[in-house]
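FORM 12-B: Structure-to-Sequence Request
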């Protein structure tokens, strides 16, 4: 069963996807549905002996191309809609072990091209209002398959956090005539203490308003709305700074750092959001080598985050770790 249920208190959709209870959870060694199919072995999601990057539709999707009718009848207060959308899996590598940190800049560049292709193709569908590219890395994040991979959700609506960013960006533009994140970049460059890495076209910072420990945002120095707006030089620089951030994360505590990676870009709802600005946000959960940041009552129930250290301190530690 899969449907959208309207939360009138928060004015946002909640997705039910009961079939996802049956998805594969940390399978035994030697059984990975994301590895290439071996001769004489079990058939995996990739019926080939090798590959570079593979994209396919999730077998246990949150959204479905042809969703079933809702299980309940809605009302004026409790709206219900079919959960029409698409969920894709992106396999980064045929190797079962390893992460994006292990990939070369050229391999990450190819992944950028794949992300761009999927953003364009999925965004061209009339029922897709937002293409959300993300990665959950690490068992503590809730990953159920350890093979290096990310996901893409083609939403039938604009997700609430993106909607809030859009509205804030629009108001800032109406008030000042400038892009909100362009101004954020200006503040971060002028201060410089929170900069983790940069190259000609991208800036990686622990933002002034970081909510998660060692949270990093990758921002385009040029005003760009989405992956589709990046030229070849920018795509290469995105791959380069992505690699630098990955290496720094893993060098920070001496192990492969779990995180949530989320791409924020222009919706595909047919409107032009010229005031918005493409960026990527990373949310690690480790506040120290052996302590985690948990979203407890004030974060989950009230929506107000608190942190145990200053963003300037996190940025200094990341600058000093790994690649320069």
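FORM 12-B RESPONSE
SEQUENCE OUT:
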């Amino acid at each position: 069963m899969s449907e959208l249920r309207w939360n009138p208190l928060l004015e946002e959709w909640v997705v039910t996807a009961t079939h996802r209870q049956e998805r594969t959870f940390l399978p035994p060694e030697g059984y990975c549905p994301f590895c290439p199919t071996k001769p004489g072995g079990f058939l995996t999601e990739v019926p080939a002996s090798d590959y570079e990057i593979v994209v396919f539709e999730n077998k246990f999707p949150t959204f479905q191309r042809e969703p079933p009718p809702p299980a309940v009848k809605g009302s004026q207060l409790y709206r219900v809609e079919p959960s029409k959308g698409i969920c894709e899996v992106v396999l980064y590598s045929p190797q079962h072990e390893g992460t994006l940190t292990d990939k070369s800049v050229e391999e990450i560049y190819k992944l950028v091209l794949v992300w761009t292709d999927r953003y364009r193709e999925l965004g061209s569908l009339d029922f897709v209002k937002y293409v959300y590219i993300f990665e959950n890395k690490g068992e503590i994040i809730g990953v159920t398959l350890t093979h290096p991979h990310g996901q893409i959700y083609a939403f039938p609506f604009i997700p609430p956090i993106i909607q809030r960013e859009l509205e804030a960006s629009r108001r800032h533009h109406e008030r000042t005539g400038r892009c909100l994140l362009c101004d954020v970049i200006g503040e971060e460059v002028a201060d410089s203490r929170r900069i983790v890495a940069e190259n000609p076209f991208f800036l990686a910072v622990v933002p002034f308003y970081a909510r998660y420990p060692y949270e990093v945002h990758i921002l385009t120095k040029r005003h760009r709305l989405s992956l589709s707006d990046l030229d070849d030089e920018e795509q290469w620089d995105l791959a380069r700074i992505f690699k630098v951030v990955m290496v720094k994360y893993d060098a920070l505590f001496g192990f492969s750092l779990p995180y949530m990676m989320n791409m924020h870009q222009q919706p595909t709802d047919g409107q032009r959001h010229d005031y918005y600005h493409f960026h990527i946000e990373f949310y690690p959960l480790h506040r120290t080598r052996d302590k985690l940041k948990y979203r407890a009552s004030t974060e989950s129930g009230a929506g107000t985050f608190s942190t145990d250290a200053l963003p300037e301190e996190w940025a200094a530690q990341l600058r000093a770790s790994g690649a320069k």
